[in-house]
Structures are given as structure tokens and as C-alpha cells.
Design goal:
By secondary structure, the protein is α+β, with helices and mostly antiparallel strands. The chain contains eleven helices and seven strands. It folds into two domains: 162 residues, no CATH class; 117 residues, Nuclear Transport Factor 2, Chain: A. It has a seven-stranded mixed β-sheet with strand order 1-4-5-6-7-2-3. Helix 6 crosses helix 8, helix 9 packs antiparallel against helix 10 and helix 10 packs antiparallel against helix 11. It is elongated.
Length: 297
């Protein structure tokens, strides 16, 4: 019975930990630690299993986030949250479904990096998981009024970037396919047309491969970057693209027939133009790929 109760809550707990941490292996470790606390708990003292598990997971995740932030300060290049990659035609993974259902997009996770650990936890619990302020207050040892004030302050700090209107999957896919074709060809003119003038590209390579270590800002600069990649042959020529879901949005995984998985690309779109490109190219950050066997792997 103890295991059944925890198993029923596990996908949601993983979502909470992932939302607070932005790293899937760390989130899975937190959930494992929460399981150990659950096993050791006195059942006569636990009146609300859900409240106990959410509180335990949240506090463990906050503690782990504080140490994780120190590591991120020494990370080589741009750090991006772990992408949670799934097959568009296979919605059956409960962990993936829970995270996607709570709208934990990569854009939101990036914006949450601006917050301190308590602000981040409050916003994740309230805006992503719809907990009441009284429940959040109990989990974080705050008053409900204080939890409400922290949530408002956190929303003000992350701004509107993470709360853009959802884009129709067909539009997302159309722009993604067009962008990948133009980037592969190094077609500067087409790239300029696809990108917003103030578009920005972030690439998380962790020091691996030919990956830009700083963001590239502006449509012209991004277009010329891909033209240069094409001209110099910096990218493998045997890459096979495959559409995937990345935190619930349409992205593409690039796989080298010779070397296996190469990168994952996700776009942010607004008003029919690409406003941000996020490239995940650090092999150590592919723990969130739940699609099983991969071409060339």
C-alpha cells in the first residue's frame, strides 16, 4: 500500500522537482530521497499523504537547487535546462505527461533561473501545479499572504517572455522545418525572413563540439552564423532530423549516422517569426530523452 500511494504521486512529484531544478537527473534523485522519507515516516502522523509528499519533495529540491546553482556558475558556455524529449506519437509515459500537462516549457524554465529558490518553488507550485496559497505556505513554512506576495514578485521578475500565447503545433512545425532546411543550406536570405529582427540563439554545448559558447543576437548575425557553419563544414554532413516533442512543444533531434545523437533544437515563436533558438548539444544533458532507440545510435 505504501508503495502504491507513492507510485500514484510519483509523476507529479517528479514534475515539481524538475520545475524547481530544471535538471532531470537531479529531480529523479530528489524523488528517490522523498521515497526514502516516505518509507521512514510514521503513518499515524501523516494525515495528508499528498501534502506530505509535495512538501518533502519541494524542500529537498530547494536544498539541491542551492548547490546546483554554484555548479552552473562554472558551467562552460550557456546553461539551458534539461530538455524533456518524447515521441510525438507516444503520449503514454506518465512522467512526460505530467510535466507537459503542467506547462513546464523550456522558455518558462529558463525564465525561472532569474528567481531565488523560494520564489521559484512558489511560482512552480502555484502557476504550474495550481496549489492553493495555503498549501504552498505549509510546504515552505510561510504565511498564505507571504506566499501570495512572493508569487506576485516572481511573476514580475520573469516578465512576459515565458508566458507568450501558445502557438499552434502546425505553425510551430512549419517554421521549424523551414528553419532547419535554411540553416542546413546556409541560406542567409531565407533565415532573415524566418527570424525576428531581435531574435537570439542560445546553444548549450558544455564545452563539447563546435558550439557557440555565448548567445548570438540579431537575425543578421544568426543567419551569417549558419552560413559560416555551412561554408566551413563545422557540422556533420550525415545528420538525420526527426521531429520530437520537447517539453510538450515541437522540436527536432539531429542524429549523426556515424556518431549518434548530435543535438536537439527548439524554437520560440511569436507573431509568425522565430524569436529564440535553443540548441542542446551537450551529450551529458540528454538524460531527458525518453524516445528509446534512435537512428544511428
Amino acid at each position: 500500500m505504501t508503495h502504491d500511494v507513492f507510485a500514484a504521486h510519483r509523476p507529479r512529484l517528479l514534475g515539481v522537482a524538475y520545475g524547481i531544478l530544471g535538471e532531470l537527473p537531479e529531480a529523479e534523485d530528489v524523488v528517490q530521497d522523498a521515497w526514502l522519507r516516505w518509507q521512514a515516516a510514521d503513518r499515524d502522523e501523516v494525515r495528508d499523504a499528498t501534502g506530505f509528499l509535495i512538501t518533502t519533495t519541494t524542500r529537498l529540491a530547494i536544498d539541491r537547487l542551492r548547490s546546483a546553482r554554484a555548479r552552473r556558475e562554472t558551467y562552460v558556455g550557456t546553461w539551458l535546462p534539461d530538455p524533456l524529449v518524447s515521441d510525438p506519437d507516444d503520449p503514454d509515459d506518465p512522467a512526460v505527461a505530467a510535466i507537459e500537462a503542467e506547462r513546464l516549457s523550456v522558455a518558462l524554465l529558463v525564465a525561472l533561473e532569474r528567481l531565488n529558490p523560494v520564489e521559484r518553488a512558489v511560482l512552480v507550485l502555484r502557476d504550474a501545479f495550481d496549489l492553493e496559497y495555503a498549501e504552498i505556505a505549509d510546504a515552505l513554512q510561510l504565511s498564505p499572504g507571504n506566499a501570495r506576495q512572493i508569487a506576485k514578485r516572481a511573476r514580475d521578475r520573469i516578465g512576459d517572455d515565458a508566458r507568450r500565447r501558445p502557438i499552434a503545433p502546425e505553425e510551430q512545425q512549419r517554421l521549424l522545418v523551414a528553419f532547419m532546411a535554411a540553416a542546413h543550406a546556409g541560406d542567409v536570405d531565407v533565415l532573415r525572413e524566418l527570424l525576428a529582427a531581435d531574435a537570439i540563439q542560445f546553444s548549450d554545448g558544455g564545452g563539447h563540439g563546435n558550439v557557440a559558447r555565448t548567445p548570438i543576437a540579431g537575425a543578421e548575425q544568426i543567419a551569417r552564423f549558419y552560413a559560416g557553419v555551412r561554408r566551413t563544414g563545422a557540422m556533420p554532413r550525415d545528420l538525420v532530423p526527426q521531429l520530437v516533442r520537447v517539453n510538450g512543444e515541437i522540436g527536432v533531434r539531429l542524429t549523426s549516422r556515424a556518431a549518434g545523437q548530435y543535438a536537439i533544437t527548439l524554437l520560440d515563436v511569436a507573431d509568425g517569426r522565430i524569436v529564440a533558438i535553443r540548441n542542446f548539444a551537450n551529450p551529458a544533458r540528454f538524460a531527458g530523452d525518453r524516445t528509446g532507440d534512435r537512428p544511428g545510435g
